[in-house]
């Protein structure tokens, strides 16, 4: 038997950061770089300025293609060249908007973290005399939840406590978290129970991108088996590089 646990109060939906998507979609991707500049200033992450530059370059290319598209007096596309350039421009716009919104969704959670309305409930509390192994697992889950909250509130402290870095000397117990942005491949393989080649793939992806923005980025940028996703979600954390 387990003791009943009070339900966690629901989180209020936050509208902060929605302007990221509004400005990106309303401008047809031409201003998709603006949220990245804003996030770079808020998070002090220079790699976001590089990402903003890439989206800015894409916007310039769209403008160039639009200016090169032949049109008649009514604004209708004319000539064979026009019918080739116009679809390319449209496809580029759709690509800019979709990629920007996908990345901004994760970025928004870091710039505008939702306030906690209660302590996370890691699971049922075992009754007296419960299996010690179950008790240990639940306690580790609670530690991970607490460490994640701390990292969200104070990223600098999280780095000082070396959350997610079992390879470094430390005194803080984070419940077994592993930092997907900074931990070596050997640590990723051990803590996430991954084949070494998959751990190396994560390191390669984060190096090429300049760091992950959220745990979910690992799944979109690497070809990891579905069987390991839940464990990565449970133990993975992303801290700034």
From TrEMBL:
Coiled-coil zones: none
Superkingdom, taxonomy of origin: Bacteria
Pfam family, one: HHH_3
Entry annotated with the keyword Lipid metabolism: no
Keywords per UniProt: Membrane, Transmembrane, Transmembrane helix
Protein's name according to its UniProt entry: Helix-hairpin-helix domain-containing protein
Entry's transmembrane regions: 18-40, 52-69, 81-102
Species whose genome carries this gene: Amycolatopsis cynarae
InterPro entries: RuvA_2-like
């Amino acid at each position: 038997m387990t003791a009943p646990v009070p339900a966690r109060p629901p989180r209020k939906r936050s509208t902060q950061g929605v302007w990221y998507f509004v400005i990106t979609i309303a401008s047809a991707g031409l201003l998709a770089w603006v949220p990245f500049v804003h996030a770079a200033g808020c998070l002090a992450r220079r790699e976001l300025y590089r990402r903003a530059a890439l989206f800015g370059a894409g916007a310039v290319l769209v403008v160039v293609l639009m200016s090169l598209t032949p049109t008649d007096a009514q604004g209708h596309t004319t000539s064979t060249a026009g019918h080739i350039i116009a679809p390319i421009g449209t496809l580029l716009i759709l690509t800019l908007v979709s990629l920007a919104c996908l990345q901004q969704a994760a970025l928004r959670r870091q710039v505008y973290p939702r306030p906690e309305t209660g302590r996370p409930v890691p699971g049922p509390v075992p009754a007296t005399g419960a299996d010690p192994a179950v008790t240990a697992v639940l306690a580790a889950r609670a530690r991970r939840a607490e460490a994640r909250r701390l990292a969200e509130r104070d990223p600098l402290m999280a780095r000082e406590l070396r959350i997610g870095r079992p390879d470094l000397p430390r005194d803080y117990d984070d419940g077994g978290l592993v930092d997907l942005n900074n931990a070596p491949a050997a640590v990723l393989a051990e803590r996430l129970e991954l084949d070494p080649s998959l751990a190396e793939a994560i390191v390669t992806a984060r190096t090429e991108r300049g760091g992950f923005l959220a745990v979910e980025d690992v799944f979109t940028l690497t070809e990891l088996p579905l069987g390991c996703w839940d464990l990565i979600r449970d133990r993975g954390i992303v801290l700034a590089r």
